[in-house]
Amino acid sequence: MKRNLLLVATGMIVAIAVLAALRATAWPFKDGETPTLAPLLARVTPAVVNIAVVGTAAESRDPLLDDPFFRRFFEGPEAPLAPPSAPRQSIGSGVIIDAAEGLVVTNHHVVQGADSIVVTLSDRREFNAILVGSDAGTDVALLRVMAEGAAFAEIPIGDSSALAVGDYVVAIGNPFGLGQTATAGIVSATGRSGVNLESYEDFIQTDASINPGNSGGALVDLGGQLLGVNTAILSGTGGNIGIGFAIPSNMVREVVEQLLEHGNVQRGRIGLAIQDVTPGLAQALELSTDRGALVTQIEPGSSAEQAGIQAGDVIVAIDGKPIDSSSDLRNEIGLIRAGDSVEVASIRDGEPRTTRATVAADTGGSAAGARAADPASVSLLAGATIMELPSDHPAYGRVHGLWVSAVAAGSAAARFGLRTDDVITGVNREPIASVAELTAALNRARPPIALQVQRDGRSLFLLVR
Question: Is residue 167's pLDDT more than 50?
């Protein structure tokens, strides 16, 4: 009996302590007694949207049909090898980060291959959206809602570097297409990587439930600031097991800035191969630190070589930001723009040293240099293949513009009236001479947009909404 009374008393003390802690964090209370997240959700949920995507995907094909010997028995020797395309529909979530401009951030994998995108707000208003730009390396995409004069809410982007393990967070999204849903939890870990070795990763890990359809949704703190964009879960069943990941807001901010300016992410590199420093490796190589990125190889003629960095150096900071692992260094350099100079702090033979290196453009196709698709293929004119005029084109040398070599049936570009063999010469009377200029002009313009086109020797305008 005494033992039971002691347990009850202990439980009451713990409950009082938890309640006091909640009050100390200024957590809202309902009816003066019950802690609630309702006021927070009332502020932020209007800025979290559902995203419906319609695109095309190749149908599966029996590999025997790709063998010329077997193919002649089914389709004939001259039959095309490409499988047919089929409609594809997907759902996800997004976050309005700029109400005035109608900018919505989501995941690259949510909108990849989209022909049309529809955004639905929590009040059930629906709007068409265009893809400003997308980056597969970070799984971040930026949309612009096509709604002149419409009123939106927004969530301010916070500082994800201030997050600590144990901080309370709330995940908001559209799991399994059920509609807007909020779940709460804590930050389980920060700086997670290795979920996808081909990506730039610095994930926030949380136990707030994240399920399919939550992708692109918001991870907010109790102050209502966006600290992450939900992107993935670790699960053997496809459902939540308490291990979810979000892209930190600081990385999202850097990617969004580049997508607005260029339509893609222009990654940097300094030309070195690296690996993690582990305690065992530090002991074997007699290193004076067990953290950082160990340089294993220097590319001849690279910025790293010019800066005097050598194999065996351990890089511990970039521009004063600590580097604890090879993924830290990869993320930091990968999001620095080409031409910028960075301060590299390293340790060599136990002695600290500092040098400066100029970041070069990453033009490679490796994981460290993964690039977004051609800007024209992920812009407002999705479905059109756009390139510079080839030298054998009849308009070459006479017209300055871009050649539309193909337009997919039913695509956004086709609906706007663009046709194969059109030559795009301007956006809102602004001359266009390159794909980069076209992407930048479309990103700057507010719909409706007048696209100037040369067709069959005559000039016309296409209205793009």
Answer: yes
CATH code, 37-59+82-263: 2.40.10.120
Q: Single out the residue of 47, 26, 45, 44 nearest to residue 35, CA to CA.
A: 26
For 163, the token pair is 């997050």
pTM for the model: 0.65
Domain borders along the chain are 2-34, 37-59+82-263, 268-369, 375-464
**What is the spatial distance between Cα 279 and Cα 287, in angstroms, rounded to a whole number?**
9
CATH of 268-369, one of 2.60.40.1400, 3.40.50.300, 2.40.50.140, 2.30.42.10: 2.30.42.10
CA dihedral angle for residue 10, residue 12, residue 16, residue 21, rounded to 10 degrees: 50
pLDDT in tens, 208-217: 878 777 788 9
Residues forming the active site:
109, 139, 215
Q: Measure Cα distances from 295 to 23, 273, 300, 338, 353 in Å.
A: 49, 6, 14, 21, 14
The CATH architecture annotation of domain 375-464 reads Roll (2.30)
User: pLDDT of 372-417, one tens digit each?
Assistant: 333 333 356 777 888 888 777 777 777 888 888 888 877 778 888 8
How far apart CA 2 and CA 335 sit, in angstroms, is: 62
CB count within 10 Å of CB 34 equals: 8
Give the least confident one: 19-33, 36-50, 310-324: 19-33
Measure the CA–CA gap between 158 and 149, rounded to whole angstroms: 27
pLDDT at position 71: 41
